[in-house]
Structures are given as C-alpha cells and as structure tokens.
Design a protein that fits this description.
With about 375 residues, this protein is an all-beta fold. The strands form 13 sheets. It has a 4-stranded mixed beta sheet with strand order 1-8-7-4, with no helix packed on it. A hairpin with a 4-residue loop joins strand 26 and strand 27. The protein is rod-shaped, with a radius of gyration of 48 Å.
Length: about 375
C-alpha cells in the first residue's frame, strides 16, 4: 500500500506572481525523487509554472508519493493612483484613489479602501491584491502643499473698437473656466464695457483666478504730426496731431527715440531726416513716416523785387529755375550744401521770363541752398536732392 507524502509551500497561493515558491515535504521520508528530476532533499524552489510532485519510501520501506501541486503564474493589473504623483494638497486635504480591479487595498496610512484622504505633505504608498492572490505596490507617492494660482488673461486692457466686440482669452493649462459675467470656456467675447475676471482649476486641482481686466470703448488710432524748428539750432519740436492714441513711439532717423506725445529732438546737423511715429491703443496701432528738413533758420527770399521758384522739389537729376526779376545784367547762382560749402556756381542773364534747367545728377542726396545774387540783394531757396 502506497503512503501519501504531504507537501507544504512557503506562500498561501500557488501563483508565482509574488515570487518563487518553496515546496517542502512534511514528515520523515527517504529516497525522495522530485518530478523536476531533483533527487534527495526535503524541499525544492520553484520558479517556473508547472506540476510538482515527489516519490520515496517511509521509514518502514513502504512506497510513498505526494499528490500533484499545480504551480501557476498570472500577471496582475497595474496599480496606479489618481491624481498622478506628486499630489498637491490645495487647501485642507486631497483624495487619492487607487486603480480598480483588485479585491483588497492596503495604504501606508492604514486605510484599506480604494481611496484615502491626505491632509499633510509627506509620502504614502498603497498595495493591492487581485483575485488570483497576486499583490502589487504603487511605490512611494509624494504629497506636496499647493496654493491658489494666477490665471493670465490677454489682453490686459481690451477694447470694443468702433462697436466690434472684444475677445478675452485665459491662459492654457487650466480647466473649468468660469467668467465673472457667467460665461464659461477659455475664451469669451464681450460687447459691454466694464471689468471682467475668470476662475479656473490648474493641473494639480488647485483653484486659480485672474486679476480684473478692463474692457473700454475705443476707436482705431490714426497717426499724424507736424513740426517746427527752433531758431538758431538743430532742435525740432514735434506736435502730435494723432487721434485715439494711448502710447507713442517716435523714431528719429535711427538716431534716437521717444515715448512722449509731443517730444523735442536735437539733430546732429542740418539736413533731411526720416521721422516715424507709431501710436497704439487697445484697438491696434497706426504708423506714419515723414521726411523733415533741418535747415539754417532764417533762409528766406530777401531779393529786391525778384521772384523765383524751383521745380521739381525734391529733385532727382535736375531742377528748373523759373522766375522774373526787374534787374538787368548777369545773375549769379550759387549752390551750398547743408554745411555751407559751395558745390556749384553758374551765371546767366537776367530777364523777365527766366526758365533754366540745372543738372544736379552728380550731387549727393540731401539739403541744398540755392542763392541767386543780382546786382543788389539776394534770393535764397531750399532744394532737396533725393
């Protein structure tokens, strides 16, 4: 008659999901041969699934054998937590929930339910057992302290421009946007002036709010200016004639800038300069550029009865002098650059109907002074070579 050899294992489950299983013989038996081929020894360690059994004799020499033990291996579902670590406590506490699919849970703070509440920073962990007896752990979960956050809104000052509604946009990275006028969503359109704000929740679940954003009624800007030159110097005063501007950006021919509405600027020398004005308000911006000429102040027609005109002015390759003078004889024309240097001279007879063409193609771009000197007096005019 065959005697049964009782066997025991180191785990209360025959599932390798929790590690290797040691199978041991209970009692005194000799000549043990395991089904794995191992001879002798009262125990073996099993790391692969399969059927385990052992045969041998009892101390009386009677044959003995164990029953088969089926060793299995299953993969438990992953154990995760929500929110994803690190978990931020926004306020008094936060709830941490483990993933479903397990029959029991064990938190490091003593909780045994699928969720637990934490109210202070630190580290917690959770383990869970599935219906196959497999146990998995989440590893350490970092709990940190959070606070309310600021929700950015653009633009900082919005405008209903010529009756067109304004659009307010809250920043990315939030959920549950709620505006002070009752609207929801990250972006809203408003048709009424006033102050608006928004609340939202960040990725950590912390509440956030924006500062107040003012919505005004405005019109699109229109840029314009005029200028006058101070006597005896290179300083020019600018008169801002723009409409609906709130901010101003002047550029003086790459020489300097100014944010003032009505600036004055001193140029380095006489000559032509490009001046740019950009005005801005919440409806947008508008730009104007003008060519101004800084000249020796006081150059005027001072001739005795002579009347002259230059065209075209500004000129490119040539200019035409037209005019009349009561003076008889020879007229002297001299051309000065902005530094006062004579760059050209010419003589021609005076007449009642002067119409003469002068070649200036070889001259540099800039401001020139044309002086026509009759027998008495002189006539001076400004010419710009482009």
């Amino acid at each position: 008659m065959e005697v049964e050899i009782p066997l025991i294992t180191t785990q209360n489950t025959l599932n390798l999901c929790n590690g290797d299983i040691t199978v041991s013989v209970v009692g005194n038996f000799v000549g043990l041969i395991w089904s794995t081929g191992q001879n002798g020894g009262n125990a073996i360690q099993v790391s692969q699934p399969g059927t385990i059994s052992v045969t041998g004799q009892d101390l009386n020499g009677c044959p003995a054998a164990s029953q088969d033990i089926e060793i299995i291996e299953t993969v438990p579902p992953p154990l995760t937590t929500v929110p994803v670590a690190p978990i931020t406590i926004c306020g008094n506490s936060a709830t941490v929930t483990a993933s479903a699919g397990f029959v029991s849970y064990s938190w490091s703070n003593g909780a045994t339910t699928i969720s637990t509440t934490v109210n202070m920073p630190g580290i917690i962990s959770v383990s869970a057992t599935d219906n196959n007896g497999c146990t998995v752990s989440s590893g350490p979960i970092n709990i940190v302290t959070g606070s309310s956050v600021a929700v950015p809104v653009e633009p900082a000052v919005a405008a209903i421009c010529d009756g067109v509604p304004a659009t307010l946009s809250a920043g990315d990275g939030f959920t549950n946007y709620e505006w002070s006028n009752g609207a929801t969503g990250q972006e809203i359109t408003v048709s009424s002036t006033g102050f608006y704000s928004v609340t939202a929740t960040d990725d950590n679940g912390c509440p956030g709010s924006s500062p107040l954003v003012e919505v005004i009624s405005s019109q699109f800007p229109i840029s314009n200016f005029s200028y006058t030159q101070n006597a005896g110097g290179y300083t020019v005063n600018f008169d801002n004639q723009s409409q609906n501007g709130l901010e101003y950006e002047w550029t003086f021919d790459s020489i300097g800038t100014s944010p003032l509405p009505d600036p004055s600027f001193t140029f380095p020398e006489y000559g032509p300069y490009y001046v740019t004005l950009i005005i801005t308000n919440p409806c947008g911006s508008d730009t104007i550029e003008k060519l101004i000429v800084v000249t020796p102040v006081g150059i005027e027609d001072v001739s005795s009865g002579a009347k002259f005109a230059l065209s075209p002015n500004p000129a490119d390759e040539y200019f035409i002098l037209r005019g009349t003078t009561p003076i008889q004889g020879i007229l002297n024309l001299r051309m000065f650059d902005s530094s006062g240097r004579i760059v050209s001279t010419e003589q021609f007879p005076a007449s009642k109907d002067i119409n003469r063409k002068f070649d200036i193609s070889s001259l540099m771009k800039g401001l020139y002074i044309i002086e026509i000197q009759p027998i008495e007096g002189a006539s001076r005019m400004k010419l710009f070579k482009k």
